[in-house]
Amino acid sequence: MPGTLDRMAVPKRPLTVVRRAAVASVVQGGNAGGSTPQAKQSAAGLDAIDLTIIRILQNDGRAAFTAIAKQLGISEGAVRNRVGQLIESKILRIMGVADPMALGYDAYAMIGLKLASGHDPQKAAHYFRDRDEVTYVIFVAGRYDLLIEVICETHDQLAMFLREHCYSRKDLASVEPMVGLAMYKNMLKWGQP
Questions:
Q1: Angle CA(86)–CA(58)–CA(141) in degrees, nearest 5?
Q2: pLDDT at 16
Q3: Are strands 92-97 and 146-152 parallel, antiparallel or unpaired?
Q4: Containing H/E element for 156?
């Protein structure tokens, strides 16, 4: 398949309540506890100060730059500049995240999709990315071609989504919904330095 897939994990519904930080790519390396600019840099070109700022914001996206600066022993302006650069380079996003179940969305499912022969996964991914009920789309290798996460207010709405947007599509060879019964962990702090 030519080219790379666009970013597909795009939230469609404003379920945001609490500001938090999410790292756009997994960052490894560096001494997260160090605070010297000469510290080893990560594969993403981040130093220990950047990685520590990310970690602090992942734990509390509302942390004041003055508090971060005091903790790192650098100026508030330096923290502000670094956060600005991390956001501009798309390594860091500060956003609100809410628990959809706490907001009354009772129907949650991960759906494994296998494409019919000769169909383009990117086209299918773009179709699902544009549906309001879909909060996550990923192109995968293995049993499925795409995995999508769907959140609806009711099970009837989830059933309607499956009928209208999955079972009726000619580009899908199989659809396997995995309906969530209980959520034990939903963590956005992946790749925490």
A1: 80
A2: 30
A3: unpaired
A4: helix 155-161
Domain-by-domain residue ranges, the chain?
18-97, 107-179
3-state secondary structure of 69: helix
pTM listed for this prediction = 0.61
For the purposes of burial, counting CB atoms within 10 Å of the CB of 33, is it exposed (0-12), middle (13-18) or buried (19 or more)? exposed
Helix, strand and coil percent figures for the chain, each rounded to 5? 30, 20, 50
φ and ψ of 25, to 5 deg: -145, 150
Q: Does domain 18-97 have CATH number 1.10.10.10?
A: yes
Nearest residue to 146 (alpha-carbon basis) of 167, 117, 175: 175
Beta pairing class for 18-23 and 92-97:
antiparallel
Residue 134 parent element (H or E): strand 134-139
The domain 107-179 having CATH identifier 3.30.2320.30: the answer here is: no
Distance CA(67)–CA(79), nearest Å, equals 10
Q: pLDDT grade, residue 27 (50/70/90)?
A: very low
Query: 168-183, pLDDT tens digit by residue?
Result: 999 999 999 999 888 7
